[in-house]
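Per your request, structure below.
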């Protein structure tokens, strides 16, 4: 089967306008049980990756009573009430969370999650991402973008 550039463009446009049968912007996604270490799903500027390497060096465990953690179970530091930054755990049941010792709006690496019952990461615009209970470790990362004015790489934000 041969595809022309026009076929590819038409297909991309059908995805972008939401008329494609299987992929729509903001639709919920789930890792397949056939996923492997290193597989990722991007929820906007938040990357959700399957891992098995254990807690990264320089991370600290978050106490479930920590005020930072209790703020809607969010996975991005400095989140406020805007829709664009609401990447949050649906529940903390069966989840242990570690964060980088320096975790702020400039961080490119996010929380490490050890899970025992699967998880769902919610977002009101990008759609929810589910990780089934056959996986035990998840690493969160943030999209990078180049800041030409400062001539450096920095974290992208919704």
């Amino acid at each position: 089967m041969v595809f022309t550039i026009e076929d590819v463009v038409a297909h991309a446009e059908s995805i972008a306008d939401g008329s494609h049968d299987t992929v729509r912007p903001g639709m919920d996604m789930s890792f397949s049980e056939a996923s492997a270490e290193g597989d990722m799903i991007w929820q906007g500027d938040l990357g959700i990756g399957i891992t098995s390497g254990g807690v990264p060096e320089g991370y600290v465990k978050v106490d479930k009573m920590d005020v930072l953690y209790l703020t809607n179970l969010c996975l991005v530091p400095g989140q406020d009430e805007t829709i664009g930054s609401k990447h949050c755990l649906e529940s903390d049941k069966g989840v242990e969370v570690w964060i980088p010792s320096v975790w702020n709006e400039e961080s490119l690496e996010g929380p490490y999650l050890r899970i025992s019952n699967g998880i769902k990461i919610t977002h009101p615009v990008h759609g929810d991402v589910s990780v089934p209970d056959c996986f035990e470790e998840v690493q969160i990362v943030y999209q990078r973008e180049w800041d030409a004015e400062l001539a450096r790489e920095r974290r992208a934000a919704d």
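The chain is about 10% helix and 30% strand.

Regards,
D.
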